[in-house]
Amino acid sequence: MDGVYRVSLVMVLYALALGTTGTLAAKHVVTWDLSSDMNSWAKGKTFKVGDQLVFKYSSGLHSVVELSTEKEYKNCDIGNALDSKSSGSDEFKLTKAGTRYFACGTMGHCDQGMKVQIKTVAGTDSSSPSDDDQDSSSSSSPSSTTSTTPTTSAAGVQSVAYLLLIFALVSTMSLFHVV
User: Can you tell which superkingdom this protein's organism belongs to (predicted)?
Assistant: First the structure.
């Protein structure tokens, strides 16, 4: 019977290790101000379905509006925004592959370059959170870093599934005295 417990422990640890390698979602922090070069920052990133954008800015001075078309984005036409937020720490979840357009809703800020387009891919491979070690502020301030936080999206569910499978396997093996 002691062997069953050892095998069970090894299998549980293995399942946990497998489960932690699941798909990770990242929080990409966007420094939302007029001095930031958001599009250069965005071009250097890979945004995946499940990731989140977090726009950080001074509430009352700026806002974030999501635009529906590239034409609205290029012309800074914020009149028909899909969404508008103004808390100073606004989150947008990237739910599908494609391009999304964001601009500042404060009069004149979009025309001054305070806008960003985000291209989201449908990839499911894990990426290192270190890919997001620089925020969207200009390269003249390299001391700024993001607070990118990877969050497990499928790993928890995957771990539970592995544990249940292993438990069933070990239970069956112990019933037939295989171990």
Answer: Eukaryota
pLDDT (0 to 100) of residue 44: 84
Residues 6+ apart with CB under 8 A from 12: 163, 166
Residue 56 pLDDT exceeds 60: yes
Q: Residue 108 has what pLDDT? A: 95
Return the closest-CA partner of residue 50 out of 155, 141, 136: 155
Number of domains, the chain: 2
Rounded-to-integer distance, Cα 16 and Cα 93, Å = 27
Q: Are 28 and 54 in contact (CB under 8 A)?
A: yes
| Strand partners of residue 53 | 28, 92
pTM higher than 0.85, yes or no?
no
| pLDDT surpasses 50 at 119 | yes
d(CA 66, CA 92): 9
Same domain, 61 and 98: yes
Note every long-range contact of 108-114, with CB atoms under 8 Å and residues 24 or more positions apart, other chains counting.
Answer: 109/34, 109/62, 110/76, 110/78, 111/76, 112/34, 113/34, 113/37, 114/32, 114/33, 114/34, 114/36, 114/38, 114/62
Instruction: Say yes or no: 120 and 177 in one domain.
Output: no
More confident residue, 124 or 69: 69
Same domain? 93 vs 140: yes
Q: Which of 2-16, 33-47, 62-76, 138-152 has the highest mean pLDDT?
A: 62-76
